[in-house]
Amino acid sequence: MSEGTHPGRDSGRFRDFRAERDLLPQIPLPARQNQVTLCDVGPRDGLQNEPETLAPKVRAELVRRLAAAGLPRVEAVSFVNPERVPQMAGAEEVVAAVGAVRAELSGLVLNERGWERLAVTGLDRVNVTLAATESFNLRNGNSSLEEAVARVERILAVADRPSTATISVSFGCPFEGDVDPGVVADLAQRLVAAGAGEVVLADTIGVATPRPVAQLVERVSILGVPFGGHFHDTRHTGVACAWAAVEAGATVLDASVGGLGGCPFAPRATGNVATEDVLYLLDREGVETGVDLDALVSVAKWLEELLGHELPGRVYRAGPFPAK
């Protein structure tokens, strides 16, 4: 090398280390970790915390754009009382306006009335949710923990389409503090026995860290159904927790385009982990998702313009790497 020559910097481009990395011995991931189903919850969990209520046709357009970016699943709506969550009013109108898309469309329900509304739509999947603590169930669903479990069991018993059961505040509750992982594992076992085809562990207030996430996912992975994670980036641990879940065997990850979201019933619960941030990590680690990162970044930029403010996500602002 001649004096004053600087490879990479003087060549005018980044050196492509990926080609060299491919020549090194590779340690393959277990088969169950080579592919992850990304579910974008932006149209539901993302928009429900926005001060502005978007028209059903606009929310339907967001669903269509996410599906066009290759998201295999989109949580399009929630069937909740519009007086409590006005941003989710008109769920049936949203579903009707979406039309045919390639993504599996899911809707969230809290009770039998929500299930009755979802059941007459064309949605592909039902996501029924309860909390891991007494206090959060009382605040979010006006029921005790045992009443919430019984309600979910009744819905699962009559569900006529694929079902997900989400356990919120699995890692920490804003009213009770740390949550016993044994309680969450027992709940997961009851939900699987009741017919849940998939269980998602939700860090509703963004307090989880990677090790407890991995330990809990490993603990419940013996139950014989797919498990997933739903993480909020409140304390900047969301992406790390998502990766810990995947390494422990999770095959489903919830995330929200642009990092939008939060729970209206949980104090200081800020946005979900951004879908494009999680996707960037999965792509670089060789995990298949079927999602086009550039297309997803475009959706985030469109949403930023629509809402009139910068979104919390990072990758949509920084851009993919290497840049095309």
CATH architecture call: Alpha-Beta Barrel
Q: What is the H/E order?
A: HEHHEHEHEHHEHEHEHEHHH
Which spans of ≥5 residues are poorly predicted at pLDDT below 50?
1-32
The chain-level mean pLDDT equals 90
CATH homologous superfamily title: Aldolase class I
Distance between the termini: 29 Å
Count of separate DSSP helical elements:
13
Q: Write down the CATH topology.
A: TIM Barrel
Rounded to an integer in angstroms, the radius of gyration calculated over CA atoms is: 20 Å
Architecture overview:
The protein is α/β, with parallel strands linked by helices. It has a single domain, classed as Alpha-Beta Barrel (TIM Barrel), CATH 3.20.20. The chain contains 13 helices and eight strands. It has an eight-stranded parallel barrel with strand order 1-2-3-4-5-6-7-8, surrounded by eight helices. Helix 4 links the parallel strand 2 and strand 3. Helix 11 packs antiparallel against helix 12. The longest helix is centred in the last third of the chain and has 15 residues. The radius of gyration is 20 Å and the shape is globular. The N terminus is likely disordered.
Write the layout of secondary structure elements.
Elements: H1 17-21, E1 37-40, H2 42-46, H3 56-68, E2 73-79, H4 91-98, E3 104-109, H5 112-119, E4 125-131, H6 134-141, H7 145-158, E5 163-168, H8 181-193, E6 199-203, H9 210-220, E7 227-231, H10 238-247, E8 252-255, H11 275-284, H12 293-307, H13 315-318
Parallel strand pairs: 1-2, 1-8, 2-3, 3-4, 4-5, 5-6, 6-7, 7-8
Helix pairs in contact: 3-4, 3-12, 9-10, 11-12
